[in-house]
Specification:
The protein has about 230 residues and is an alpha/beta fold. The chain has three domains: about 50 residues, lambda repressor-like DNA-binding domains (434 Repressor (Amino-terminal Domain)); about 100 residues, 3-Layer(aba) Sandwich (Rossmann fold), CATH 3.40.50; about 70 residues, Response regulator (Rossmann fold, 3-Layer(aba) Sandwich), CATH 3.40.50.2300. It has nine helices and seven strands; from the N terminus they run αααβαβαβαββαβαβα. Strands 2-1-3-4-5 form a five-stranded parallel sheet, with helices on both faces. A two-stranded parallel sheet has the order 6-7. Helix 4 links the parallel strand 1 and strand 2. Helix 1 packs across helix 2 and helix 2 crosses helix 3.
Length: about 230
């Protein structure tokens, strides 16, 4: 059976669009729907929504869909779940722990069989955790992305920030750089703390003064401000 990624490449669309078409969901214009349907049928996929059985439902919570990183997470998770016969219920913008708890409780009321939280309040250095315990106490598997809280009975998935920072610094040092700055996001989040810890450990003996560090927001503008500040500071 053709995979979503194969159909998407053949049709020239995203995997998320293929998923919506195969699930009979809205949000796809008719021309694209016909094109994807034709390609999928040609590749051996059933595309009649009436023939697709409802599978288990998984709740996915992401911070927002304005940041391309989180959009990619949502699309990739939906594609992977679809390939395994599951449907995805996506929520976003849990600005507060109370809002996040409300979303998780709604997931539970909808009958989800699992919940995935990407960069939620579990990534905060001192964020509340009781609402995650409510999920696991209900017997629902919980996956937390980009942040580890060892006291929680959950599965954790995070990038290896320590290895990434050490690899970059090693490469820059090989090129002869002696003054290197680190621009990262919210200093209270788990991924940023991991990056900072590795950066300070590696550069501790590079010079008498510490290497510059700037905490900024995750945006293009946020990435451009620190270099200017560092240059003016010498």
């Amino acid at each position: 059976m053709a995979r979503l990624i194969d159909i998407a490449k053949a049709a020239g669309v995203s995997e998320a669009t293929v998923s919506r078409v195969l699930n009979g969901r809205s949000g796809v214009n008719e021309a694209t729907r016909r094109s994807v349907t034709e390609v999928a049928r040609r590749m051996g996929r059933i595309v009649d929504a009436g023939q697709v059985e409802d599978g288990p439902l998984v709740g996915v919570l992401v911070p927002d869909l304005d940041n391309q990183v989180f959009t990619s997470w949502a699309e990739r998770i939906e594609a992977e779940l679809f390939e395994r016969g599951a449907s995805t219920l996506v929520a976003m913008r849990a600005r507060t722990a109370e809002r996040e708890r409300e979303i998780l409780q709604r997931f539970l009321r909808c009958g989800v069989v699992g919940i995935i939280v990407v960069s939620g309040h579990h990534a905060q250095e001192s964020g509340p955790l009781d609402h995650y315990r409510e999920v696991t106490a209900a017997g629902i598997p919980l996956v937390l992305v980009n942040g580890v809280q060892e006291e929680l009975d959950a599965a954790f998935l995070s990038t290896d920030d320590d290895h990434a920072v050490r690899a970059v610094l090693s490469h820059l040092q090989e090129l002869g750089h002696e003054r290197v700055g680190l621009a990262v996001g919210d200093e209270h989040t788990w991924p940023v703390r991991e990056k900072l810890r590795a950066f300070e450990a590696v550069t501790a003996d590079w010079a008498e003064d510490p290497q510059p560090v700037s905490f900024t927001d995750f945006s293009y503008a946020g990435a451009t401000r620190p270099p200017g500040t560092w240059s003016r500071a010498g």
